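Field reference: "sequence" (input) and "structure" (output). Example, DUF58 domain-containing protein:
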Amino acid sequence: MALTGRTALLAAIGSLPVGLLAPSWTGMLAVNAPLSLAILCDYALAAPVRTLRFTRSGDTSVRLGDHAQVHLLVENPSGRRLRADIRDAWPPSSWPTGADQKASRHRVKVPAGERRRLTTVLRPTRRGDRLADRITVRSYGPLGLAARQGGHRVPWKVRVLPPFTSRKHLPSKLARLRELDGRTSVLTRGEGTEFDSLREYVPGDDTRSIDWRATARQTSVAVRTWRPERDRHILVVLDTGRTSAGRVGDVPRLDAAMDAALLLTALASRAGDRVDLLAYDRQVRVRVQGRAAGDAMPAMVDAMATLEPELVETDARGLSAAALAGAPRRSLVVLLTSLDAVAIEEGLLPVLSQLTQRHTVVVASVSDPHVDEMTKSRGTAEAVYEAAAGAQSQAQRRNTAEQLQRHGVTVVDARPEDLAPALADAYLALKAAGRL
């Protein structure tokens, strides 16, 4: 039997999806037929959600610490005016904690047949790819008493790149590079193979740099100056094993190593050297090679964006083999790893000679400033024990570094904020000495 009158109206209202009626009205539906009719009409006049069209545009990459703008074009092809709340959902790490509630929600009005553009501002807190999630639309009727709700998926990806905070050191390192390269009035001597010019001897100059033939032709002693070699090959090796997952302060060891690698790459590329990248733990995670000087930096930044530590012990033999395969001719091999005594003595030292026989090797590591603070602790028995533990840890690192140096390795051990400039200085020193 067909329902009529008030019974039919309540049955129609009861068929509405749960949650689409304003909460303040739900308890009154069964006793107020005019109000029920108004709510039903309001629901019927709400613009449909399924027919809405969405198009994305905007940033596809952003450096960690900066913000990205992703635009969402909302098109309303229906014959009803759209009054809606729209939530453009992204992963939680797309904003600082608690900030996504406001940034991802928009209130919009779109007349029939028109379109509007919404902008979601992302401020990612982690490296990697951020993928757009579901777009949820709640379309209200003219009275705001009821609403239709539905969702759409419109794919978009924003790659969050390493921040490269050590970029501030680049101008000073380039100034030193210009001095080494003879582009300023300061001429340096070294053991390079590219002759630059002659100048008058100054007390303290290396006597091996004296040009005796030129001296015989003039009244003063002449010394040769050398231009650092160009077009040398540098292989940066990132250890992505378990030790790279440790945090030093607020920075993961791997992130500090990446920052140092980027400064070295920027500096070496400007010096005319070729830089390749290898990330390894028990297998190759990332490999960037064969790029021209101008293309190396963008390629490395993009490759590092999605790189994460692996909670496995690094295979030192596999790492050495991968490095040798990536550097077939004499190169500078820069290994960014931990100076953990066990990992070095049992892993790297047995295979180190394979690298040092063919290449110049630099081992760079992040030291923990908290250990330095521990050694200064005094006043209580607990503080004294803490100081002793810190001193023992420092002694182990020094001993490990000395073992590497006895194998001809240059060791750079610095705090997270100092690692990048210290590694750049080591590179410049090797270049000035003609050891590349």
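The domain at 1-161 is CATH 2.60.40.10 (Immunoglobulin-like).
The longest helix spans residues 381-406.
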